[in-house]
Amino acid sequence: MSTFLKIYNDLFAYGKPCAPRGEEIKELENYQATFAPYERLSSFRARILNLGYCKQEFLWYLRGDRYDTSIEEHAKMWQKLRDVDGGFNSNYGQYLFKTDEPRRGGSQLEWVVDELTRDPHSRRACMVLLSPSHLRENNVDVVCTYAISFRVRDFKLNMSVSMRSNDAIFGLTNDVFCFSMIHEMVFELLRYDWINTPEDNVLHYLGRTLELGTYTHKVDSLHVYQRHYDMLRALVSEGVDGYEHIEVPRGDARQFAALLTGGVLNSFDAPLINWLTQ
To answer: Any idea of the CA torsion for 79, 83, 89, 91, to the nearest 10 degrees?
Structure first.
């Protein structure tokens, strides 16, 4: 059974009703799921994945521009989420990949890679997204994710994502894809910095082969909206028969660096970039 399908089964069986801001939902509190390496995309007969949108959201994050309105062309719901300054608080890239604090010396992503290079046992390799500035009355775009953290244990790079709120039908699918891509990005950038034996094409981290570990997704309120109750029932009813796994080309440090900086690679050298932009 896929992790996505287990989540839907748990929500259907154990979710409890409540109505934040007057809108009924079925909710699981303090929910946690762990995804295997590269488990990031799925589609179901009852909920066909919009793969094109998943790609566009990730590319939007990579640009890291809170005033980039191009995302509205791919999902109209973003038109309702502009902040009073015309920007989007929930463009996660502005927190992860950019910096407006020169004293920090780089982005939060760079901090994570540098910290795990300095100390492979570190517990400080974290990126913070939700800010107190988001928590104000009538803000329509309160960031859903608290933080993303990384640890190297047994020479595996594990990642944890902590969220205050997550819609299990559409939000979860997009979020898991984007966060798992960030997981792979940090993994590849760590390996790139420590190439000890290039002659056999094995990349190393501190003299050992680093592996991609697990991705643990933690949510205070995992929920489904009332308008999607029938869809949730169908997802659980169809089970594995209605499930389709979707493969994503693997990236490498050169491709991720090019995506972050707008660099150009030869097309035959960049299968991930080709897939994301096609």
So the answer is: 30
Residues of the chain falling short of pLDDT 50 = 103, 194-201
Give the angle subtended at the CA of 211 by the CAs of 158 and 200, to the nearest 5°. Answer: 160
**What pLDDT shows up at residue 262?**
83
CB 273 within 8 A of CB 255: yes
Q: Would you say 191 and 203 are in contact if contact means Cβ atoms under 8 Å apart?
A: yes
pTM over 0.70, yes/no? yes
One-letter amino acid at 276 equals: L
DSSP code for 36: P
**Own/partner pairs for 199-205, CB < 8 Å, 24+ apart?**
205/120, 205/152, 205/155
| Among the listed residues 3, 33, 37, the one whose alpha carbon sits nearest the alpha carbon of residue 250 | 37
155: left (phi over 0), alpha (psi -120 to 50) or beta: left
CA-CA distance, 191 to 20, in Å (whole number)? 44
How far does Cα 82 stand from its chain's mean position? 21
Give Cβ neighbours of residue 273 (< 8 Å, ≥ 6 apart): 255, 258, 259, 265
Residue 186, burial from CB neighbour count under 10 angstroms (0-12, 13-18, 19+): buried
- Do residues 117 and 204 make contact, with C-beta atoms less than 8 angstroms apart? no
Complete DSSP assignment for 246-274: -------HHHHHHHHHT----GGG-HHHH
